Amino acid sequence: MLKNSFTAILSRYGLSHSTIKNLWQEIAQRHGEAHRHYHNLSHLIHLMDLLQEVKQDLAKPNAVYLALFYHDVVYEPQLQDNEEQSARLAKERLSKTKVPHAIVNVCVEAILATKKHAAHTNKDINYLTDADLGILGSEWPEYLTYTKKIRQEYQAYDDDTYRKGRKKVLEHFLEIPRIYKSEYFYQKLEHHSKENLEKELLLL
């Protein structure tokens, strides 16, 4: 599903089969790194499923989907600039192809927006950052599995350090007026997300 979608998008811009294959292999290899328990290809599939629900509302769907593929291409839990590095790599790879600059620019901007998930003036980017947080609104068993996978990714930190950091993240999302910027995902996920966050907070 992911590979076919990636191939279909880049084929529209006249990229050769070998070029697309090489780009995809890099994405797949990076998302298959041993330290990734949540930020892997399954995460991308979940985002794609959510974005399919709003695809008709996307002004530049190709840019959004390319951002989906590249937004976590660099992921090291102990680093603070994963999004910047991912955006840089996406721009470097795609700028060497026939993908229009306008598409690449939106892709890069969307990747950078996944760092803070703040409201953006570009509706497409809001859809992507909302989908990136979609797991927060899942059913409790799935949410609990997600929290365990995140803990595995941060296994370099002791329990006290992790709890403090995680608590800060949860409290941030509970304190902001709304987690989801688009009306669609706000209506679909906001209430359940905050319930999940509150339940996790009690477990810490």
Main beta sheet: none
Judged by helices, strands and strand pairing, the structural class is mainly alpha
Mean pLDDT: 98
Kindly provide the radius of gyration, computed on alpha-carbon positions and rounded to a whole number of angstroms.
17 Å
Order of helices and strands: HHHHHHHHHH
Number of helices: 10
Structure characterization notes:
The chain has about 200 residues and is mostly helical. It has helices at about 1-10, 15-30, 40-50, 60-70, 80-95, 100-115, 125-130, 140-155, 160-175, 185-204. It has two domains: about 1-130, no CATH class; about 135-204, no CATH class. The protein contains ten helices and no strands. Helix 3 (about 40-50) crosses helix 7 and helix 6 (about 100-115) packs across helix 7. It is globular, with a radius of gyration of 17 Å. The model has no long low-confidence stretch (mean pLDDT about 100).
Throw out a few tags for this protein.
204 residues; mainly alpha; 2 domains; 10 helices; 0% strand; globular
